[in-house]
Write a structure and sequence with these properties.
Shape: globular
Number of domains: 1
Number of strands: 15
Strand order of the largest sheet: 3-5-6-7-12-13-15
CATH architecture: Beta Barrel
Structural class: mainly beta
Number of helices: 4
Largest sheet: 7 strands, mixed, barrel
CATH topology: Acetoacetate decarboxylase-like
Helix content: 10-25%
CATH superfamily: Acetoacetate decarboxylase-like
CATH class: Mainly Beta
Distance between the termini: 11 Å
């Protein structure tokens, strides 16, 4: 296999990997959703939903405020599922997926990744095959919570509020994302860490509006109470190139 490309032309500017995120603030809510409905939103047969319980999968909705990043200063919303390459089975049914999740061995597939800046949109689509589009994203902070509003193609799609706070730190976490570039499945690896991290089991609110994203989330049985929420006051990461799966 040939080595993945490391230098790109993005909006007339040369951009090289790895991509460094030095400071981002992030909050996420994770939900148990029907695995069959989640599988219907995957783009190809090469990856499959990781079933965490019989008929159940995990869907995560995250808000990210990138403050110091090689791709710029921008807001982002990620809607993703935990997945495995097709045929890659856990060592134990269901329990094995939970073990792999806690050990950062489960990958994710992002079905929507709206951002509010054009450079990161083109870079994300070109380099990693991420489904980025330029939309309206506002993130507001209070002492104990953060609220993100997404207006997608002129329609209010969702508003997510998550608890804010925490004093935990983590480092050396692996993150794997699966994506498609011109119809070909790829995998991207990243190293991630965080400071000011907290985990919560209440306090999140999700309101859905109209349009494709809201309809897809409703097909998953949302809005409802999330399984858990996570907050990272300062997240940092290093992203490498996308490689063919």
């Amino acid at each position: 296999m040939s080595a993945p490309q490391m230098t790109y032309q993005i909006e007339g500017r040369e951009f090289s990997l790895p991509c460094e995120v030095r400071h981002a603030t992030s909050g996420a809510a994770t939900y148990l959703v029907p695995a069959k409905a989640a599988a219907a939103l995957l783009p190809g047969p090469e990856i499959e939903i990781a079933k965490m319980l019989p008929g159940k999968a995990l869907c995560s909705i995250a808000m990210i405020d990138y403050k110091d990043n090689d791709l710029g200063d921008y807001n982002e919303i990620s809607i993703s599922f935990f997945v495995r390459p097709r045929g890659d089975r856990p060592t134990l049914p269901y329990l094995g997926n939970w073990i792999d999740l806690t050990r950062s061995r489960l990958g994710v597939h992002i079905i929507h990744l709206p951002v509010n800046q054009s450079f990161t949109c083109e870079a994300g689509r070109t380099i990693w095959g991420y489904p980025k589009t330029v939309q309206e994203i506002d993130i507001d902070y209070a002492n104990d919570r953060a609220t993100c509003k997404l207006v997608y193609d002129g329609q209010h799609a969702l508003t997510l509020t998550v608890p804010r706070g925490g004093d935990k730190s983590v480092s050396g976490q692996k993150m794997t994302t699966y994506s498609y570039i011109e119809g070909v499945p790829h995998v991207t690896s990243a190293d991630q860490g965080a400071e000011g991290m907290g985990v919560f089991f209440s306090g999140a609110e999700l309101a859905l509006g109209t349009g494709v994203i809201a309809d897809q989330l409703r097909s998953l049985g949302l809005p409802k109470r999330p399984l858990m929420c996570a907050w990272m006051e300062r997240m940092y990461a290093t992203f490498g190139p996308a490689e063919k799966l």
